[in-house]
Amino acid sequence: MKLFFASGNPHKAAELQSLADAGAVPVQIVSARVVGGMPAVEEDTGTFVGNARKKVLALRSRLPADAWILADDSGVCVDALGGEPGVESAYYAGPDGDPVANLAKLVAVMREVPETEREAQFRCVLLVGGPDGAEEIFEGQCGGRLLLEPRGGAGFGYDPLFVPHGYTETYAELGDAVKNRISHRAQAWGRLAEWIRARGR
Ligand code: IMP
Predict the structure, then answer these.
(1) Nearest to 185 by CA among 1, 45, 2, 12
(2) pTM for this structure?
(3) Centre of ligand 1 from the C-alpha of residue 200, in Å
(4) Residue whose CA is closest, atom 11 of ligand 1?
(5) Which of 3, 22, 96, 104 has the fewest CB atoms within 10 Å around its CB?
């Protein structure tokens, strides 16, 4: 099965491709670059599902009607912040979506929050849109806690601040091999992979 990936984020594309390769899932993930890149999308629906649906619709305008399109909308939801930054994770520090500034803002906002109240969940929605409005939604999440200071050089975004439950290292210290086994995206991907296999093509 061919899935056009409605994203301009190279980190997400790389993670999804290695998840597909590792599980020998019969899928080819095709970058939006082959059709001129991902159109700009205002992520203003307030939900992961709604934003993912907007991304699929935006790329649909550049593809034939029978194309299958995949979008990822994801973020980190912090209990002490009432679930923020959540769907706003990409734009937490401002509209230009600077990941370094986003991470620095979360570190600053969480500075006074004690060790026992630093619980957070990474959440991921993978939404697949097909011909005639067909739609499938797969969700994944990974719970953990936030450190006071970032640690580690792998991954992207908020990875250096997040220690998943059951581990002592951050996503950014654990690296791709471990992250791709346990992450929110890996959980959602596992459900999508089951669906692809069940379709049989
Ligand atoms: P969006 O799904 O394009 O709206 O953006 C998701 C944002 O959430 C990213 O820009 C990151 O800031 C954050 N995010 C999502 N998944 C991850 C992850 O696996 N690691 C670190 N940050 C992530």
Answers:
(1) 12
(2) 0.95
(3) 30
(4) 157
(5) 96
